[in-house]
Amino acid sequence: xxxxxxxxxxxxxxREHRVFAPPPEFAAKAHVxxxxxxxxxxxxxLDDPEGYWADVARELHWFTPWTKxxxxxxxxxxxxxxxxxxxxxxxxxxxALGGRKDKTAILWEGEPxxxxxxxxxxxxxxxQKFANVLKGLGIKKGDRVxxxxxxxxxxxxxxLACARLGAIHSVxxxxxxxxxxxxxxxxxxxxxxxxxxxxxxxGQEVHLKAIVDEALExxxxxxxxxxxRRTGSEVTMRKGRDHWWHEVMAKAAPECPAEPxxxxxxxxxxxxxxxxxxxxxxxxxxxxxxxxxxISSKLVFDLRDEDVYWCTADVxxxxxxxxxxxxxxxxxxxxxxxxxxxxxxxxxxxxxxIDDHKVSVFYTAPTAIRACIKWGDQYPQxxxxxSLRLLGSVGEPINPEAWMWYREKIGRSKCPVVxxxxxxxxxxxxIAPLPGAIPTKPGSATRPLPGVVAEVVTRGGxxxxxxxxxxxxxxxxxxxxxxxxxxxxxxxxxxYWSAIPGSYLSGDGARIDQDGDFWLMGRVDDxxxxxxxxxxxxxxxxxxxxxPKVAEAAVVGRPDELKGQAIAAFVTLxxxxxxxxxxxxxxxxxxxxxxxxxxxxxxxxxxxxLPKTRSGKxxxxxxxxxxxxxxxxxxxxxLEDFSVIARLRExxxx
Length: 654
Ligand code: PRX
Prior knowledge:
The protein is α/β, with parallel strands linked by helices. It has 20 helices and 30 strands.
């Protein structure tokens, strides 16, 4: 069995030697104060994983304690078996009924500049009322509710109200188009949609309700729609189906106790891209997810009562679920939500928000950092940024230059930077420095969190030597792991658990250095990461092929300075069609309309043929090379028709 993987994705040339020890004054106050303390905690979690997780779980409120911590029949898992818990209770009631009732839970800023503050007591009141609204619409435990909103406090209220009842929420990112909404609503047979009239983005209104209306033409399961009035623009309300949020809330009873839910009752479904055209709905359950989002927030962001925490992710992605809403509120910490674009009205908007609200912990994505670098240092320089004490990054590998810029220009060289690796599937941060304990290195997510057993292995499942690239796997189950793919347990099993028996395959490449620090190297499958968001190449290909003029399409990622990866599409046309610049634009617009702007190809290249193996598989590796470097130098011995290469080279660039 070979220990080196000859996969271009897995060869790493990055050698970064800078190391930053935790600042002593930070470490002194941190939850975990030294490397030794981290190592002891980690060792404990290895020696007695169930004891470790049970101790963490006891920090939360359970209506009934569990009888067994873990039941593990790979890949099927149950955590805190028999325990009864409610995540909404832990995120809201515990604080509203305790000493934090007047403390701000949600601090919201709209793009036009309005500010709203909801205390834990106010959030409690709103969530109870909205849970009663849902009940009034006949929604009960186990029902699926789609949420398609902008970043408003009502979005968080909607999530929490579902969690309170045990209704399963399925949040669909507000940037997705109607078509994507249809697929997701139908896959889970959602009975209701919660939306808003519109949302502000870069001064323009995104007409969410109109998109819902278009989608619902094709979704027969949806019986009710609740519309929060945000922008005040005109929308069509369908009688009997559509309800204004403010009207139903005005009539709702004030009290709604949190349901004691089974630890393994589903909490939400969240769709993410895979290697096929069909998005997969990952299912997260209640108890384990509550426990691990709680502890990872506490340890990685080193949360304290006085923090004002801001994660810039949209709640449409898993980062927003775990680290805008659930993990942060469970810690009783103020979470800031911002509605709009980071560069509106000017590219210093984020830095202004940090100063205005005295944000102390800031969590964003490498793509945003790279955009800020491009906009220029003058924007952060306009602001003090002295409230910040910790910076985080998530979504894709962060290049050392961006990491250093973030540290120096935003953190003013005094804030630790935590690069956090995790996935929709993992539910919580898995690999990241504990900022008071673990020295950081630009570009490294450093060490697994206590309770997380990560390794880098060959395709045969053997550990690779220090410094060599391999596949990142998890050797043991963890509480917030996804339990299945909605309606498709076989796909869950085959995709994540069959390549290396007993281990979870993340789909990412990584290496571990001599200090035991992890360096993430990107995806090893046909998934591309555009601005920190995962897109399956197949999804974009399916959209392209659905266009009447397209015969065949292959989509690959190529490196992009700002977005991490850009989308390059190679397209062959139906017999009589002529390749024209207009058609290129048409195809780009088509994909935007089918999936959303995120998936719009950056390059469209028309070609007469695609490179295929004798068994008919498209050789994306060659296309990746061509799209990235303009050349094909790699091994072409398995190619069916060598003349394709010459024809591909002639394909005109987008
Ligand atoms: O490839 C990894 C990359 O994002 C993927 C997960 O995407 P998603 O499920 O959309 O969740 C994003 C937010 C957790 C991973 O498989 N990724 C995420 N964080 C990092 C990362 N790659 C390198 N370093 C990271 N810190």
